[in-house]
Design a protein that fits this description.
By secondary structure, the protein is an alpha/beta fold. The chain folds into 3 domains: 15-92, Multidrug-efflux Transporter Regulator, Chain: A, Domain 2 (Orthogonal Bundle); 96-173, Methyltransferase, Methionine Synthase (B12-binding Domains), Chain A, domain 1 (Orthogonal Bundle); 184-296, Rossmann fold (3-Layer(aba) Sandwich), CATH 3.40.50. Helices cover 55% and strands 9% of the residues. The strands form 2 sheets. A 5-stranded parallel sheet has the order 4-3-5-6-7, sandwiched between helices. A two-stranded antiparallel ribbon has the order 1-2. The chain is globular, with a radius of gyration of 21 Å.
């Protein structure tokens, strides 16, 4: 557990550096600063906000409270109380729940309202922990969107637009996920598999648990995947498929891959029997829970 140090160290960190150090995006840091008074920056001669190591400690302590299940408002109040500082009074808007925000996100994306969707995402990531947003909001939304697309109640344009917006936000969360000293995982989709957002979520959460991620993305040729694994020697290779059609034709190649490297298969296109026949670990749960459980082993 980290402790909040006295705020007498000299502020010297720009918000980008603070974001890099604590692993929280700058827009979330700004939201925690304005909404809860969590950060107390000073101004440089040029007018830039400068943050201190005490601010970084507050963010780390905030993350610990969030991991314990507190809401962002409760976590911020607890951090400030530990530091003997007065919390910022919260207005009625702070009580908006996950269901309301999820509904607002769906409405904005269905209406092609990119600024509105980004505002809702900002609110989600500032008020809730990262695993909560990914597991309880984005993954259910993507599954529901796919169901609506198959049923004809969501258009191709709506599906593409929503995927683009969410991919952009996930891409920001994935920045720098290949650095570090922890175990290495290679993540890929097999040839002709174009749905990889759940795999991105898995990689983001696994990275937050200390793993390094080599991400190859959609429709990866197996020979390219093998060459990558030979080069990086990962602790795990993860392949995700949304339908059996993209896995069955390459089951022999996957079995050969599993003989050389630890292999896990994920996604709706993989059954326990298929994974067992290939000799791979089957990741049957949601990507957030599977990443957390894998990292705990």
């Amino acid at each position: 557990m980290c402790t909040v140090t006295p705020g007498n160290d000299r502020p010297s960190l720009r918000i980008g550096e603070l974001s890099r150090r604590v692993g929280v995006s700058d827009h979330v840091l700004r939201a925690w600063e304005s909404r809860y008074g969590l950060l107390r920056p000073s101004r440089s001669d040029g007018g830039y906000r400068l943050y201190s190591e005490a601010d970084a400690d507050r963010i780390r302590r905030m993350q610990e409270f969030l991991a314990d299940g507190l809401s962002a408002a409760q976590a911020a109040h607890a951090v400030l109380a530990e530091a003997g500082e007065e919390p910022v009074a919260l207005g009625p808007a702070a009580n908006i729940g996950v269901d309301e925000l999820s509904a607002s996100l769906r409405e904005a994306l269905d209406a092609f309202d990119e600024p509105g969707a980004q505002a809702v995402l900002d609110r989600l990531f500032s008020d809730l922990s990262l695993p909560t947003v990914l597991r309880d909001v984005l993954i259910p939304y993507l599954a529901e969107l796919g169901d609506r697309w198959q049923a004809g109640t969501a258009s191709v344009a709506q599906e593409h637009f929503a995927s683009f917006v969410i991919r952009g936000r996930l891409g920001g969360l994935a920045r720098g996920w290949g650095s570090g000293r922890g175990p290495r995982a290679v993540l890929a989709c097999p040839p002709f598999e174009l749905h990889d957002l759940a795999l991105m979520v898995f990689g983001i959460v696994l990275n937050r648990q200390g793993w390094r991620i080599d991400y190859l993305g959609t429709s990866t040729p197996l020979d390219a995947l093998v060459r990558t694994a030979e080069s990086t020697r990962p602790a795990l290779v993860v392949i995700a498929a949304s339908t059996p059609d993209v896995v069955e034709p390459i089951r022999n190649e996957l079995a050969a891959l599993a003989e050389r490297f630890p292999l896990a298969l994920a996604g709706p296109g993989v059954t326990p029997d298929l994974a067992a026949a290939i000799g791979a670990r089957h990741l049957a749960g949601d990507p957030v829970t599977e990443a957390e459980q894998l990292a705990s082993l």
